[in-house]
Amino acid sequence: MTTKAEKEQMRKFAELGCILCIEHLGKYGTPPEMHHIRRSGKRSNAPVIPLCPTHHRFPNTSIHGLGRRAFELKFGLTEEYLLERSLALIK
Ligand SMILES: [Zn+2]
Ligand SMILES: [Zn+2]
Fold first, then answer.
1. Of the residues 6, 18, 22, 67, which has the maximum number of CB atoms within 10 A of its CB?
2. Ligand 2 center to residue 35 CA distance, Å?
3. pTM to 2 decimals?
4. Alpha helix locations (H) across 32-78?
5. What is the Å distance from ligand 1's center to 31 Cα?
6. Alpha helix locations (H) across 17-67?
7. Rounded to the nearest whole angstrom, what is the distance from the C-alpha of residue 91 to the centroid of ligand 2?
8. Of the ligands numbered here, which is closest to the C-alpha atom of 82?
9. Short-list 65, 54, 63, 59, CA closest to 27
10. Is pLDDT of 15 > 60?
11. What is the pLDDT of residue 43?
């Protein structure tokens, strides 16, 4: 189930663009996919961040391609930081 607030957040994330393109390249509006941040608990409750296909699932440049640890090392930031920044930017 998706609440109205969640839908609104996804709409704003889609408009904002990939958060890593913003943080790493200073580029806004790259069309994103929604990446679920895995914490303990249900996937349906997982927070999401906007990531473009290059930064979401392509080999060697993305969180799924590299794995979270290598991804965080490569870009020098954490998934949780990207979540914080995403939320701050749509306020
Ligand atoms: Zn990106
Ligand atoms: Zn993902």
1. 18
2. 4
3. 0.91
4. 53-56, 63-66, 68-75
5. 8
6. 19-20, 53-56, 63-66
7. 23
8. 1
9. 54
10. yes
11. 59
8 Cα to the center of ligand 1, angstroms: 21
Distance 64 CA to ligand 2 centre (A): 6
Tokens of 20: 């890593």
Rounded to the nearest whole angstrom, what is the distance from the C-alpha of residue 8 to the centroid of ligand 2?
A: 19
Cα Rg of the chain, angstroms: 12
Cα 21 from Cα 1, distance rounded (Å): 29
pLDDT tens for each residue of 50-85:
999 999 999 999 999 999 999 999 999 999 999 999
Write out pLDDT tens, residues 28-52.
999 999 999 988 766 567 899 999 9
Q: pLDDT at residue 21 above 60?
A: yes
- Residue 2 Cα to ligand 1 midpoint, Å, equals 25
User: What six digits make up the tokens of 74?
Assistant: 């490569």
Q: Which ligand approaches the C-alpha of residue 36 most closely? A: 2
